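Protocol step 4 of 5: obtain the predicted structure for the target chain.
Materials: sequence only (see below). No template structures provided, no constraints applied. The aim of this step is simply to have a reference model before the mutagenesis design in step 5. Sequence pasted as it appears in the construct record:
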Amino acid sequence: MAVSIKLDDELKERLQRLAEQHQRSSHWMMREAIRSYVEREEARDRFTKEALVAWQAYRETGLHLSAGEVNDWLDRWGSDDESEIPECHS
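Step 4 output (structure tokens):
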């Protein structure tokens, strides 16, 4: 699918300078910028969906870990005291 993007002159010049500095084409730079944006937005959408599922599960069960419990567990990662994630509770 061919797509046309209109850029103002200032942005075109900035893009061209950047492309030359990185020894890439401006087309490559635009593709990379769009790919990066799409991946970031997809990740944000997945995070939001996962958070909503977790919130719903908490509302239904009341099971949780406190921030302190999670921090204590994370502080032990990589140490001799490392353990499995604590059990959720209500």
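Step 4 remarks: The CA atoms of residues 68 and 74 lie 10 Å apart. The chain has a mean pLDDT of 96.
Proceed to step 5.
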